[in-house]
Amino acid sequence: MRALVCLCSLAALLSAAPLENILSEAQRQELGLKHQQAIAESDYLKRSWISPLLVQGAYQQSQSRFDQIQSDRTYTTIGARIDQDIFRSGGILAAQRYADALKEASLIGVQSELQGRLAEAYGLLFGIWRLEAQIEKQQLLAANARIEVQRKQERFDQGVIDSSLLHRALLDRNALSAGILELKESLDRTKSAFLELSDRAIESIAPPALKLPDKEAFLGGALALQAARSQRHAAGHYTTMIASQYRPRLSVGASYQHYLEDDTPPAQGGAQQSAYGWGLTLTVPLDLKGRYESQGVRLEAKIAQKRQHLAHQEQVRHYVQTRTRLAHLDRQIALAQEDIELYGALLAQTVKRIEAGSQTEDDRVVMANAKAAREIDLRLYTLSYQEALVMLHLRSSGAL
User: Fold this and answer.
1) Among candidates 208, 242, 211, which has minimal Cα distance to 22?
2) CB contact at 8 A, 386 and 16
3) Alpha-carbon dihedral angle through residues 292, 294, 300, 301, given to the nearest 10 degrees
């Protein structure tokens, strides 16, 4: 029940915004071109087994002299031929399936690159939001530190405390002020890094409101698993392709040639001939090294299968780790909410005591700042919670 309350309060704290592509237009165009390139290369590979039709043309000129008679002749030859494998002991079908598997792997690779860049961009974005919140919290703590310095100064002037306590209060105030400067410098660097990936205004982006995906849905769409599966399929088809190179194959050949003697029209005895032919060729390779090459690619297929199993285990571990981290953040959120309620009650009591004259306005400011600082802690926990969900969703297309 407590966890349910935490989740409900978390949803109320977040702005409802989907997980969107925040990459710049140039980044998206580059990835779009890589997507098209992957498709084009796969289409070429899928048809690489088809032999080209060779068209040839020749022009020849000859000159002969016999008994003071010179004869000049020109010849034109036009022809076409093709040699095409029509059976490779399963190699043709395996080549097409191999091309399809490589296409799938390449497209998943492009999608993985997209998700990787999005993860980097969102990581920087959450870093910006986190730094802004930390600066705000540090400013509240610095304000309280200044009040504490004033109090210590007054007590020192009255001779109630020695200089060491005042010195310690000054050091705490200065450390908070220096920390704010460091946080602002880090914020500027993070913003610059984000703008290298995105052309969106940071103020126009809200933290996305996501939920923990179902484990089966996450694993079903995990890009790493899809990539490992495609690579395993490609390795299996490649094994068949290599094996077919050392098995019998059947090819068909055909040719056509047209011959024309240009200087004399056919009606006056000029030569004009045509010739064509076709045939089947059965090739049985006898290559001893084929056994060793086939053995190597079979081992590669087994390695790909093992990689798929390891990828599955890694994704399961990551899902479990994320779920554990979310549960831990749920507890931190609940504790922060309890502290905020407590600070609210203390602040109300402080106001009453100010009215009674037992406390000062500085006491109210200190308590209000402490309550606001704890509210910022709640925002930081919420950002960490949602960042973990974003990174989990980016690993899986099924979770988006």
Assistant:
1) 208
2) no
3) -150
Report which of residues 291 and 114 the model is more confident about.
114
User: pLDDT per residue over 300-334, tens digit each?
Assistant: 889 988 989 999 999 999 999 999 999 999 999 99
Residues in CB range of 261: below 8 A, 6 or more apart? 73, 74, 75, 270, 271, 272
Segment 17-33 mean pLDDT: 83
pTM of the predicted model as reported, rounded to 2 decimal places: 0.78
CA–CA separation, 393 vs 400, rounded Å? 6
* Residue with tokens 């919670």, as numbered in its chain: 385
Per DSSP, the residues of 72-102 read: EEEEEEEEEEEEEEEE-TTHHHHHHHHHHHH
CA of residue 147 relative to chain centroid, distance = 49
Neighbours of 263 (CB within 10 A): 11
**DSSP character at residue 159:** T
Max Cα–Cα distance, the chain, nearest Å: 143
CATH value of 2-62+71-399 in 1.20.1600.10, 1.10.10.10, 3.30.1360.40, 1.10.150.240: 1.20.1600.10
Neighbours of 391 (CB within 10 A): 17
d(CA 13, CA 184): 25
398 contact partners, CB below 8 Å, separation of at least 6: 213, 217, 218, 219, 220, 221, 222
**Whose CA is closest to 237, among 92, 51, 109, 86?**
92
Sole residue written with tokens 């009453």: 352
pLDDT surpasses 80 at 264: no
pLDDT tens sequence across 164-213 = 999 999 999 999 999 999 999 999 999 999 999 999 999 999 888 899 99
Distances (CA, A) of 344 to 209, 331, 375, 382: 27, 20, 11, 20
Question: In the chain, pLDDT over 90 holds for what percent of residues?
Answer: 47
Q: Which residues pair with residue 259 across a beta bridge?
A: 77, 273
Cα 176 from Cα 138, distance rounded (Å): 6
**What pLDDT is recorded for position 4?**
35
Q: How far apart are CA 268 and CA 200, in angstroms?
A: 81
